[in-house]
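User: I'm curious whether this sequence folds into something compact or stays loose and floppy. Could you predict its structure so I can see for myself?
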Amino acid sequence: MGKQETFLVDSNTFITPFRLYYSFDLVPSYWKELKKYLDSGSIVVLDLVKKEIEGGKDELSEWLSGVDDLIVVPKVTEQTVKSYQEVMRFVSSSGYYKESALSSWAPSNVADPWLIASAKTNGYTLVTEEKKSGGLSKKNPNKYAKIPDVAEQLGVKTIRIYDMMRRLGIII
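Assistant: Here's the prediction. I'll summarize afterward.
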């Protein structure tokens, strides 16, 4: 039997359902199921993502703080720092991005490059609601780096929420 897939989630994996389609009062079963997989370690959270959610000081932040066995992945480990450097080197030297893409990912509190680095280092599947830019081109470099584009170039799997739900068997 192979290693169980572990999902590392971007903050928009919590924020988008919370704000747009799975509010706590209307679809509590979604949050109950999600909590089960967070408690089991099938879904893990980067420390920066946890901090971002907790900063919301809302029903979502209360819910996340109530997940007892939440596995919080530190952004900084020796190996993750190496992967982070690889991510940033790709954004700066691939020719697919303008300088603005690098400067928007450079602050230490920006989770996107750390999510890719952590997924790469730990073999996680990265879950984000971010969409690909629709084609990287050196002739027309992008202003912003997108998680799915950079992750793909570095061999990191990315999927959307519904794909994660299907793989975990979450039916609400």
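Summary: Residues 133 and 162 are 20 Å apart (CA to CA). The chain has a mean pLDDT of 95.
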